Amino acid sequence: MKKTNSFLKVITTFIQNLRDKSAAALMGIMVLISACSDPSEIILDPDNNQIGVFYIEIPLSSSMVLLDSFSTTRQGSLVAGGDISPFFGKTEAISYSRLSFNPGGKVPTEEAIFDSAKFHLNIVGLSGTGFSQSKTFKVHRLNEPILDTTYYNFNSLQFEDEETIAQGAFVLKADTINAVSMDLEGELALDLFSKLKAKDPVFADLFAFRDYFPGIAITGDADQQVTASIAPGSGTGISLYYHYKDDTVATVYPINTIQSRYFNQIKNDRTGTPTENISEPGIAYELDGNLIGSKANVGLVIKLDTQPISDFLDTLENVTFNQFELEMGPLENFPDTKRPISNLIMYFSGDDNKIMQRKDGKLVSVQAEGQAQIEGIDAEGDIVPSVLRPNSLIFNSEKFTFSQQLNSYINAVYRSGLEKTDLILYPRFPSESAASLSGSGDDEFRQSLKEYIVNRNTIKLKVYYSKVK
Questions:
Q1: CA 80/CA 219 separation, integer angstroms
Q2: For position 469, what pLDDT does the model report?
Q3: From CA 302, how far away is CA 327, in angstroms rounded?
Q4: Which terminal Cβ of the chain has fewer Cβ within 10 Å, N or C?
């Protein structure tokens, strides 16, 4: 492990010797610069005024942090499958869920004739490669129950890996919902149907049923390079089909994952990769080489050291800031079927490398452009940062970069005394719920194995500012 070192390296373009000092000329220059996102777009006549216009790139050093206590309990999707990456290693996702049924529902009578039994998967999201080839998924019967507790990405339950109650191989389409079905193991299917017809006590209520059938585990194959996000509910689970004499249409009895407790286990073997040494939560790891990245459900995120920004601001007096833009990328190559997460919220982080919280427990982040960064002053005289309008780096699918303007935030740090901290880039959609650890918006980060990799040398703050000489 290496400690992250702060540094400041600036590339300055100074445009000077303008003779026209009129207010109109100054205003025109300000508007032009504010509209530009690249210094090459700034076109000024060097012989036409005396205002200094500066463009500076401030490289930001970066590290990687393993988040602590990453809950995967009831986070929106069952995640199964995996992938193999030279940077992140081999990652496998296993989903665990209870099954449920309607105790008051209509059950087959003794005259019912069994037809078949299927296990359905309602696959609502896919990330991977090689979709012209079939992908295999297996369903296993748990050997122990799912408890009424919080499960994290490192938790697991016992099941027989070599024994399945259903399995199948499917050619999947990456950009649509895939509803697939596989045969339920025959002995289990007949046992379930027989107990239903006989009104066996295991179907008296959900608690009795869970003693008989604790739940399921769904697995995939990391070597096949695909991860499925499976929606819990009526579309994922068992269907028992039966009919009565002279029936022309079969009747179905569902035993599915609707309103069931579930969680996802993530196994990530980083041996032999640049991320191999990342093992302890709460430590900022600076990696060898130029690459750095983030991976969903594993809990790996990027942290930016913002000390170079402070060093730069400390050198300035009486300047007008025109634009601050944080940019990262372009990202390392990825296929269209394995796109990265679209938003990265910039949470404040201290020396403990955790997301900073206010005294009331709200998570503190950079706020959106045009929004107040400071809420007020508390009874102890401390500045209370705003939290309800988070800003985020946004993925640009044409440039393959993450970027965002930070004018309001930097001005609050420079002029209003807002505490300057390092920033953790957390994959999450910006909304009021992002101010809470239990809030929504980080669905992709907890419902997939999406990732992105970027060259650390491309992470920079682009600054446009001016002052009259």
A1: 5
A2: 60
A3: 14
A4: C
Q: What are phi and psi of 205, to 5 degrees?
A: -160, 175
Q: In whole angstroms, give the CA distance from residue 218 to residue 238.
A: 13
CB hemisphere CA count around 256 (13 angstroms): 21
* Distance, CA of 157 to CA of 162 (rounded, Å): 15
Segment 390-416, tens digit of pLDDT:
999 999 999 999 999 999 999 999 888
Which residues, at least 6 apart from 403, have a Cβ–Cβ distance to it below 8 Å?
A: 325, 326, 327, 328, 329, 393, 394, 396
| Token pair of 421 as six digits | 């901290």
Encode pLDDT of 90-132 as tens digits. 999 999 999 999 988 889 999 999 999 999 999 999 999 999 9
CB-CB contact of 422 with 355 (8 Å): no
CA dihedral in degrees (144, 147, 153, 156; nearest 10)? Answer: -10
- Of the listed ranges 9-13, 92-96, 276-280, the least confidently predicted one is 9-13
Q: Minimal CA–CA distance to 214: which of 136, 287, 142?
A: 142
Dump pLDDT digits (tens) for 300-357.
999 999 999 988 888 877 778 889 999 999 999 888 899 998 999 999 998 899 999 9
Give the chain's mean pLDDT. Answer: 88
How far apart, in whole angstroms, are the C-alpha atoms of residue 369 and residue 344?
15
Could you tell me what percent of the chain has a pLDDT over 90? 71
Show Cβ contacts of residue 368 under 8 Å, excluding neighbours closer than 6 positions.
Answer: 389, 390, 391, 408, 430
Half-sphere exposure of 20 toward its Cβ, with a 13 Å CA cutoff?
13
